[in-house]
Fold Lipoprotein signal peptidase.
Amino acid sequence: MCEHSPVIMASNRRKLVYQAILIGMAILLADQLSKFLVYRFIPLMDSVAYWYPYGGIGIFKNVGGIEFSINHMTNKGAAWGMFGNYQLPLVILRMGLIAGLCVYLFCFNRDSSWQIPLILIIAGAVGNVADFFLYGHVVDMLHFVFWGYDFPIFNVADSAISIGIGLLFVISWFKD
């Protein structure tokens, strides 16, 4: 049988899809476990706790001017709390985007290099939607201060979405 036969290509495609799904499930598990632990064991960050570790758990301070701590914050909106007064429309929009990305990934995508980035975006989005139903808001916990700039607090799901989008840009940039 030829190396590029349809049977072998379909088998390789299925294998790649299963690998992508396992990666997505691992990310979703890490996201939900980290959020549960933070929600359960770290008090909600007080807006007056401006000193390191900001009411959370200090991981490192002043490593090349960078600080990192685990803190418990809530986010009722989209990125950086935007549209926080529109939780229900946001969750409906997110669920529609997840469905659309899943349909595209499993039914129309023919570029295997897009599978991992898309699954990262889907897993992250599912993690943040799950928060809406579990907690009534998204749980954020990763707090970096870069050379005095207090970066917005985020979570594992946000990281997966950002990495997935970044990978899509890089892949698209280098495609002929």
User: Anything to note?
Assistant: Residues 1-5 have pLDDT under 50 and may be disordered. Residues 6-41 form the longest helix (36 residues).
